[in-house]
Amino acid sequence: MSKHTPGPWAVGPDLEVFYAPNGCGITRPLRLTSLVGRTEEDVANAHLIAAAPELLDALERLFDEYEDRRGQFCEDPIWKKWERVDVVEEARRLLDELKGEKE
User: Fold this and answer.
1) Rounded distance between C-alpha atoms, residue 67 and residue 18, angstroms
2) Predicted pLDDT at 92
3) Of the residues 3, 16, 58, 79, which has the maximum number of CB atoms within 10 A of its CB?
4) Treating both helix axes as pointing N-terminal to C-terminal, what angle do 40-50 and 52-73 enclose, rounded to 10 degrees?
5) Is 79 helix (H, G, I), strand (E, B) or coil?
6) Statement to judge: residues 33 and 61 lie in one domain
7) Residue 33: inside a domain, yes or no?
8) pTM for the whole thing?
9) What is the Cα–Cα distance from 57 to 23, expressed in whole angstroms?
10) Whether residue 8 has a cis bond before it, omega within 30° of 0
């Protein structure tokens, strides 16, 4: 498993991301994309960062399910057609990289 702070993470008033249960900071306040103040993009970026642990967990569960299904249906011709879809392989590579299993 990766060595990040577990979730849940939350976004503070200055767009800092913190560990929700104890308020410990994960990031400093994000640098704003606009010199005139906070934009919708700044807020969206902070929320995307805060969602990272949940997204990682969902991706891990998705691959667990994928592997279970592959074991059940690996001989099915329809499965074989979709077994090596590029986007699945790319997502697997990214997950392995995040978990420190591959470079």
Assistant:
1) 33
2) 85
3) 16
4) 50
5) helix
6) no
7) yes
8) 0.74
9) 21
10) yes
58 and 92 inside one domain: yes
Residue 13 DSSP label? T
Domain count, the chain: 2
The confidence score (pLDDT) of residue 1 equals: 47
For residues 53 and 6, the answer to whether their CB atoms sit within 8 Å is: yes
Parent domain of 63? 54-98
What residue type is 79 in one-letter code?
Answer: W
Which residue ranges in the chain fall short of pLDDT 50? 1
- Over the range 44-59, which residues count as b (16 or more CB within 10 Å of their CB) and which as e? ebbeebbbbbeebeee
The C-alpha atoms of residue 48 and residue 25 are separated, in whole angstroms, by 16
- The predicted structure's pLDDT at residue 102: 64
Distance, CA of 21 to CA of 23 (rounded, Å): 6
Contact 53, 9 (CB under 8 A): yes
